[in-house]
Amino acid sequence: MPPARASHGPVIVDLSNVAKDPSIAFSHSHAALVRWDRLRALWVRERGEPVAWLLVADESIVRGMSRSDTQRLHAMTSRGEVVMVPDADTHLLALAISQRGVILSNDRFVDHLRTPGIEQARLVGWTLRDRTLCLVDRSLDRLQSVLISQRAAKQERKQLGLIEGAPELDFKWFCRSEPCPRDMVALPRLERRRILCPQCGSYLERGEAWRSPVWLKILHGSVEIARFVLEDGDSIRVGRASDGATLSLAGEIELADDVLHLDPHHLELMNEGGTTWVADLNTQHGTAMRYPASKRSNVLLPPVQLEVGREVALPLAARVVMGRTPFTVQIAGRPGG
Q: Which of 164, 322, 324, 209 is nearest to 314 (CA)?
């Protein structure tokens, strides 16, 4: 499936996020405009010129720039090419919603997921595959790749000074340190009653409490390719559509042959009070459930085909099989257990 084009709206660039990402291009400065130059060239080469570029940056970005880049940024701001604001995330989302644009950022905006109208915006990020920079369509309304499995959580809790059922695990935690690549932290570090980021050591900001969360993961064979969380009352579709409301697997370029065998909207997952429900969305090749042979066994029973539209509970250790592909979905565990 070809990538979504930006011709129907402007590309709204999270310049702070782009300029600080060393995976785009090397620089001796913490923030460098050469990274924006390279990412813009990649966009034009792969997707063509958009109707407009709208660049938004945090006012603090200049603290990490070289003198020449600072002068260039001021010139761009004077020409109206860049908007400098105290809170770039809020401004980016407001523009994307009002103008139905595409946000170019690797930020997941996890603390803005309940912004009214967020489903109208689209998100495009970037990644390195075999040392090649690639654009990737992503979902704005679901968090991925920030959580860990149940077994890993138990091992890591000991190292982080946390006990099972610790009250710190009931809340979302956010790292606001600019150099830190993490935003949302699944497992904080507890050190002398201080809540710290396990990666950079900065103090964490406590968010709201989780609402009966369920963490799930998508695998291709035995390889995990995505993680996400559903809170009580949340639902999400999984497939190959890139419509902003679907957790799309279309960005998995190296798995393109298998992705093509998925329906655009293949299945829907729902969290009701901590119980995960799954439903097939009238797909060509169907959806099946493989239940564990017993509670203490890792052996799975043969797949049982799901009836179209019927919601079926997804138990621990079971796997949802998506059509005739190696893609499966299963519960990944919770930070607290």
A: 322
Q: Is the pTM of this model over 0.90?
A: no
Strands 304-305 and 287-290: antiparallel
Enclosing domain of residue 244: 214-333
- Give the span between the Cα atoms of 110 and 175, in whole angstroms: 12
DSSP secondary structure string for all residues of 114-166: T-TTGGG-EEEEEEEETTEEEEEEE-SSS--S----HHHHHHHHHHHT--TT-
The answer to whether residues 131 and 40 belong to one domain is yes
Q: Name the nearest CA neighbour of 176 among 167, 185, 168.
A: 185
* pLDDT tens digits, one per residue of 38-86: 999 999 999 999 999 999 999 999 998 999 999 999 999 999 999 999 8
Query: 3-class DSSP state for residue 215?
Result: strand
List the structure tokens of 274: 């901590």
Residues 183 and 124 in one domain: no
Say which amino acid occupies 316: L
The structural domain count of the chain equals: 3
| 278 located within any domain | yes
Assess whether 221 and 329 both reside in one domain.
yes
- 308 in the same domain as 199: no
